[in-house]
Amino acid sequence: MSDRLAYARALYDGVPLYDPKRAPVDLDLTDNTNLWGLPPAAERALRDLAVSRVTRYPSLYAAELKQELAHFVGATPECVVTGCGSDDILDSAMRAFGEPGSVVAGSEPSFAMIPIFAQMNGLRYVGVTERPDHQPDLDVLLAANPRILYLCSPNNPTGALLKRETLERAVREAPGVVFVDEAYAEFSGVSAVDLAMRVDNLLVIRTMSKAFGLAGLRVGYGIGATPLVRDVEKSRGPYKLNAVAEQMALAALRSDMPWVHDHVALAVKTRERLADELRARGYAPLDSHANYVCVPVARAVDVGQALRARGVAARPFPGLPHVGDTLRISVGPWELVERFLTAFDEATRDVHGGAP
Ligand code: PMP
């Protein structure tokens, strides 16, 4: 029997299931989550509050959570939409704004799911290589006449921050909606939310998976003009955010902000300390504004494998434009970073005699 059903949707043929085929390792530094753990009020909410909620449906569109998120980012609740992770916001927003066949343009390298979400929604993805200064090449992106222009700040995997003037020009000149993915914004202290509140074509996409330590709950959100977020909400559908996630996210926003701020500061300090350690070994890590370091390393895939053999995972990105092979390393408690560095020294010695 063919593995393609006669009634399958043709455009799904080329869509892979996300399967990085990575065996579990002892120390996983590949996903930029909060390696310090779970904030305490969120944990208490799981024990004391969330259990009582699961026999009934959650709220339709997470109104209470929208209120707290709006307060956190400096927006109004009517300008916020929630989803099952920022993945869900990106996917729903593409469905909301992309007519079948229209163009999603994205700067590359960036978040690997963007071309997949575009394809799944019947849109045409156009990737445009970033400039050597790690800023998007706006002239080329705009020339693609995108219905949706995807930008990411700080960018994954480089860690580069999008220049405000570039974003403002994108919003002014784009023929459609501009998405700014701010999954790592807490680590940079820079956000486009203020601009999203003033224009009608900017959707800022955020998550509680990184700084808030709640990746397993799948809580993401979008901020933009009310008509924009209303359409994302229609596309997302009702009852999407589960009741446990909503209660824990609410507890975190109401009572865990000191924890979140402390751990963001710690992540930033640790990121710089890791970058210093890499520089001391002769490497030239890219300037990062997120909770990871992206460092050019020759034969990064081989180095990644040699790390894995030592129970440590960092994500290799082979052949990035302008910088070549790199490894992206999530930061966490310093003792974990030290374990990484020990394994990295051995792995690079194995692969290329220790030279960067
Ligand atoms: N955007 C970027 C840039 C990311 O790196 C990720 C996760 N790695 C996401 C979005 C999705 O995160 P989540 O669905 O957990 O919110």
What does this structure look like?
The chain has helices at 40-48, 63-73, 85-97, 113-120, 138-143, 164-173, 185-188, 193-196, 226-236, 243-255, 257-280, 300-308, 334-352; strands at residues 27-28, 80-84, 103-108, 124-129, 148-152, 177-181, 202-207, 219-223, 292-296, 312-313, 315-320, 324-330. It is an alpha/beta fold. It has two domains: 10-35 and 258-352, Aspartate Aminotransferase, domain 1 (Alpha-Beta Complex), CATH 3.90.1150.10; 50-255, Aspartate Aminotransferase, domain 2 (3-Layer(aba) Sandwich), CATH 3.40.640.10. The protein has a seven-stranded mixed β-sheet, with helices on both faces. It has a three-stranded antiparallel β-sheet with strand order 9-12-11. It has a two-stranded parallel ribbon with strand order 1-10. It is globular and about 55 Å long. The model has no long low-confidence stretch (mean pLDDT 95). The protein binds 4'-deoxy-4'-aminopyridoxal-5'-phosphate. The site of 4'-deoxy-4'-aminopyridoxal-5'-phosphate (PMP) has 13 residues, from helix 3.
